[in-house]
Amino acid sequence: MVFRLKDSWVWDFWLADDGTAFHMYFLHAPKSLGDPELRHRNARIGHATSQDLSTWVSHGVVLQPDDPDAFDGTSTWTGSVLKGPDGIWRMFYTGARFYESHNIEAIGIATSPDLHAWTKQAGTVIEADGRWYEKYGDSSWPEEAWRDPWVFADPAGEGWHMLITARANSGDVDNRGVIGHAVSPDLQTWEVRPPLSRPGAGFGHLEVPQTAAMEGRTVLLFSCGADTLAVRKADGYGGGGIWSLETDSTGGPYDVAKAAIVTTAPLYSGKLIQDRAGQWVMMACHDANSDGSFEGIVSDPLPVRWDADRGGLSTEPPAGTTTNAQQPAPGLAAPTHEEFHANP
C-alpha cells in the first residue's frame, strides 16, 4: 500500500534497514497550507517503519526547525541515514533558510542510538565551496543548491563519501547541475572536493543522488524534472523524472550526460533498496500530475532490473516474461494512482 498521511503532503524520503525493520524518513508539510508549493518552506522530517516496505506505521516528527537563526531555521530537508563503525546511527540532512527571493541550503547531522530518537549536532557539517560550486548571487538561479546528502563508505575502505545536489559556478544557467562531492575519514570532519560530474550535461540540478552496487554493476540514481532540464535537452524526454547511469565505481566520476530515464513524471525522488528476499526494488514519491495537482504520497516498491538494451534501470519485466508483481502497463512509466491501494 502506498504511504500517505491524512493531513499532510509527503514527498522526498530515504530509507534505512536495521536488519529487523525498514525505516523511512520523509519530508511532510500540512495540507492546511492550502498551496502545495508552500510545502518546501514548511517541511519537517517524519519517521515510519515497515516489515515489508509496503505497510508502514508512522511515528511522527523526528527533526524540525527549532532555532530561526540556525542553518535549518526554515525547513529540514532530504538526507540519508547510515550506521557508523561506532554503532551510532547518523542522519545527514539538508537545512534550508528561506528569504523573500531565494533560499540557502547547507548540510547538518543528527545522531541516534536506535533510529527513533534523534539529536541534532549544532552547526553545519559543510556548505557549498565557491571554488567549484555556485553560491547564491553567482547567477539568476533562485537558490544556493547544496542538499540531498547521500553518504556511503569508500569501496576501498578509505573513509566516506558524500554525494550532494549542487551546481557548478560556471556555464549556462540552466545547465550547471552537478553531483557535488565531499569526503571524510571519520563521518565527523568533512572536506569539500570538486564535483564528480561535469556541468553542461543537460540538467539544472541532479536531485536526491544515490549509488548502489547491484547485479554485478554500480549504478547512480538521481532525479530531474522537465522544469529543470536544460532547454536543449528538455525536448523528447517525456517530462523528466528519475534517471540512472552505470558507473565504474560508486565513488565516481559520473558521466551523467549518458543517463537514461527510469520513469517519467509523476514518479520522482526514487530510492533503491533490497527487500527481505534480496530483490532490488525502487520506491518513489508522486510529484505533480499532468494537471498540476500534487498528491503527496510515496509509492509501493517496484521491482527493478538492469536493462542492457536501454543502458539503464527498468521497472518493466524482461520481454516475454510475466509476473504477479505490480508492474507498469505497457508504454507507461509506472502504475497510475488508480492502480495503487491507499492505506486505511
Layout of helices and strands, plus pairs?
Blueprint: E1 8-17, E2 22-30, E3 44-50, E4 56-63, E5 75-83, E6 89-98, E7 103-112, E8 119-120, E9 143-144, E10 146-153, E11 160-167, E12 177-184, E13 191-193, E14 207-214, E15 217-225, H1 231-234, E16 240-247, E17 260-264, E18 267-274, E19 280-286, E20 302-303, E21 305-307, E22 312-314
Parallel strand pairs: 7-9
Antiparallel strand pairs: 1-2, 2-3, 3-4, 5-6, 6-7, 7-8, 10-11, 11-12, 12-13, 14-15, 15-16, 16-17, 18-19, 19-20, 21-22
Description:
This protein is 1% helix and 43% strand. The chain has 344 residues and is mainly beta. The protein has a single domain, classed as Tachylectin-2, Chain A (5 Propeller), CATH 2.115.10.20. Strands 5, 6, 7, 8 and 9 form a five-stranded mixed β-sheet that branches. A four-stranded antiparallel β-sheet has the order 1-2-3-4, with no helix packed on it. Strands 10-11-12-13 form a four-stranded antiparallel β-sheet, with no helix packed on it. Strand 7 and strand 8 form a beta hairpin. The longest helix has 4 residues. It starts with 7 loop residues before the first strand and ends in a 30-residue tail after the last strand.
